[in-house]
Amino acid sequence: MSDDGNNTPQPGNGSRRNPLPEDAMPKGGVNAPVPVAAEATPAVDPRLIIRQEGVKGYLGEFRRRVSSGELGSLPVVLALIVIWAVFGSLNSTFLSAQNLSNLSQQIVGTGMIAIGVVFVLLLGEIDLSVGSVSGLCAAIFAVMNVTHGVNEWVALLSAVAGGAVVGLIQGLFFAKIGVPAFVVTLAGFLFWNGLMLQILGASGTVNLSGHDIVSRLYTTIYGQAIAAYALAAVGVLLFLGAALLDAGRRRNAGVPYRPASDIALRTIVLAVLAFLAAYTLNQYKGLPLALLIFLIFIVVLDFVLRRTGYGRQIFALGGNIEGARRAGINISWIRISVFMICSTMAAVGGLFLAAQIQSASQTSGGGNLLMNAIAAAVIGGTSLFGGRGNTWSALLGALVIGSIQSGMNIQGLSNAIQFMITGAVLLAAVVIDSLSRRTQRAAGRA
Amino acid sequence: MTGSPVLALRGVSKRFGAVQALTDIELEVNAGEVVALVGDNGAGKSTLVKAVAGVNQPDEGVIEWEGRPVAIHRPQDAQHLGVATVYQDLALCDNLDVVGNLFLGRELMRFGVLDEVRMEKRSRTLLDTLSIRIPSVRIPIASLSGGQRQVVAIARSLIGSPKIVILDEPTAALGVEQTAQVLDLVERLRDQGLGVILISHNMADVMAVADRIAVLRLGRNNGFFDRRSTSQEEIISAITGATDNAVTRRQARGTEGDL
Predict the structure, then answer these.
(1) Which of A369, B30, B164, B223 has its CB 3.0 to 4.6 Å from that of B1, i.e. a possible disulfide?
(2) How far apart are CA B106 and CA A345, in angstroms?
(3) Is the residue at A427 inside a domain?
(4) Angle, nearest 10°, between helix axes A130-142 and A152-172?
């Protein structure tokens, strides 16, 4: 209580004292119901550092967060700026609307898989099978649709459901039998790859027709300029509306709320980014459907993680398993379902990757796809140690990795150098994660 | 205190293999009463608490809740009855904020979505009623001191409106000021009409807040004491069995011999 000069938390005269008047839960004094407004900041501990109003306070808060290791997405945003500046200066085609539009499509496959990896990482676990699962589900779709002529929607749903079943099986082994996730998914990595080869059969490659549902989802581009701008406007308005609604409810309930200047600042930053992206896309062909689907997945799953009881339970499990168990959370169910989400997202990513190369082949889901997907999640700012992260890190991480690959291709650099640089970026991301965790512990934030 | 006690244990026994952990334990807890459960390591305090909290089931004996015999098979059964247990390792999630921890597993929902506003408001009200002072309800648990975590853990147990709160060594890891805060909190729980079972090795704490003291020794009741009419020495003798050892027996024989 900073305003009444009584800074001692409680009359600490402890033991055999007579009941003091305030023991009867008085309505005054320390317990007075205070008219709460964000500016007044009453009833808070005097030691709490209170953010000042406006942009200045915002910067101060930002500086404090960074110095105490709460980096969030800051390193990846900086990395992205550096990467784009370097490749842009080396070759102007890199920052051309065409290349950036293509980039926004190419990152979708890896990014979708990375969203699933984010969920598993939030539990503090790992899924090494996502690459193989993505290849398997692409093969399921291709073989059903092309070879056996099954309805394209049935084939699509079967492929996605196949991913869910894979996750169910791996999750059961992990959650019910207690095999470490690393081992279960390492076994899965081999097994599902083998199953994919089996399904593809002797030919080894099944080409997509080019106008099936999966290809259309990937290649469709909304050419009208209005599409991209409308999406940007809807996104900004949704954000603004949600922020205002939340602030209004909080003000009515008498709990601290975000000041209007803060909301305005955030909305403006978001609007600038969204409309810049829309403008760039419109400079080339327009808004790719794949990017739209990717963004919808990110927003919906971000909502699930942050605003639903299920998401809260995932974070709790990543923070303290014993605490979660005592709170009555069904640990097994959360673990199994998270592995199902991860494998399902791997299936979705695999379908987009198949559409990208117009075929499902023996090399589907192989190569460095697994590493790229995990690297994208980690580079984007999701912690390997569980309990911290969000789905947007999949977008940011996939953008970093995609940008490096695209830039290197434009420069005509070999795979050898690409691998080394991607590896170095991944290592840097994990180093930043470890260091920020250490700083956070030192600053009492983890 | 009129009527039957909120919680009563009648002749509770528990065996683990060849070990008789509890033998014919009797314990009563009334509303608005702090019962301290003391005893040396291995006296059976934890086993007794686990029986009430639904972690273990007693082999024999009856647990009565407000006069009716009840079966507590799982921790959830105990929670439904109104028994809240704060274990020594607080089991808080470091990465969640205070509100998130208080309502973990009991989140308030609105249209199927977390109702953060209502949870935050109720958290503030609850912490205010308990005169708990923490910097903010929106900072992660990792930022709190040991004492603050302890009071948050106790506050969490109160979210479900329990009638009995079991505190396992709540002051074991705390400093002077923080201990005083937790003891104040225990008194406030009593004043609000809750029954409190306080497990502690610290006699000063026990004498400070307990109304009655139940001593366990080697899995048996070794006396109930009213705090006002008991000295610390008597309780310590009951805990260590100093009234029943070779020295006292010999002294007793000696006095008889003199007579």
Answers:
(1) B30
(2) 29
(3) no
(4) 150
Closest by CA position to B32, among listed B209, B255, B155, B216:
B209
**What mean pLDDT value characterizes chain A?**
84
Domains and CATH numbers, chain B: 7-258 (3.40.50.300)
> Mean of the pLDDT values across residues A409-428?
85
Per-residue three-class SS string for B53-122: HCCCCCCEEEEEECCEEECCCCHHHHHHHCEEEECCCCCCCCCCEHHHHHCCCCCCEECCEECHHHHHHH
Instruction: Express each pLDDT in A387-418 by its tens digit.
Output: 889 999 999 999 999 999 899 889 888 888 88
Question: In total, how many domains does chain A have?
Answer: 1
Weakly modelled stretches of chain B, pLDDT under 50:
1, 259
Q: Which two tokens stand for residue A412?
A: 């005509």
Interface A-B, measured as beta-carbon pairs within 8 A, has a size of: 141
pLDDT for res A399: 93
Strand ranges for A320-363 from DSSP E: 359-361
The tens digit of pLDDT for each residue in B23-45 reads 999 999 999 999 999 988 888 88
Q: Please identify among residues 15-54 of chain A the ones whose CB lies closer than 8 Å to any CB of chain B.
A: 15-16, 19, 22-25, 30-31, 33, 43-45, 47-48
Relative to beta strand B164-168, strand B19-29 is: unpaired
